[in-house]
Design a protein that fits this description.
Order of helices and strands: HHHHHHH
Shape: elongated
Largest sheet: none
Number of domains: 2
Strand content: under 5%
CATH topology of the largest domain: 434 Repressor (Amino-terminal Domain)
Helix content: 40-55%
CATH superfamily of the largest domain: lambda repressor-like DNA-binding domains
Radius of gyration: 16 Å
């Protein structure tokens, strides 16, 4: 089966645009969330930028993994990292509690 070029997500720009549209975000919304300029998003979606400096921030703003945007995987789910867990948790938690939470995530995460 051949890919339809109109719907194929074979570039970073196409994946960013499709996900942004799915989330009903404007290019300005995404730029603000990722800490870059709207012009950067325009260039990225137009495939004028192929290795954006803010790929992690863009992926985070879109709720997908940077690996997905870079076409290293077709699974858009963001990866769970210790840094992400720490960022989402209360700053007052002791490191031991964070370590226990991380261990539970690793034990029960889906393959």
């Amino acid at each position: 089966m051949t890919k339809n070029p109109e719907t194929s997500l074979d570039t970073i720009g196409k994946r960013v645009r499709a996900r942004r549209k799915h989330l009903r975000m404007t290019q300005g919304d995404l730029a603000a969330a990722a800490g870059c300029t709207q012009q950067s998003i325009v260039q990225l979606e137009g495939d004028k930028i192929t290795n954006p400096q803010k790929i992690l921030e863009i992926a985070d703003a879109l709720g997908v993994s940077a690996r997905y945007l870079k076409m290293l995987t077709d699974d858009p789910a963001p990866s769970i990292t210790t840094a992400r867990v720490r960022a989402e948790l209360d700053d007052d938690l002791p490191p031991e509690a964070i370590a226990q939470i991380w261990a539970l995530i690793q034990r029960y995460k889906q393959p």
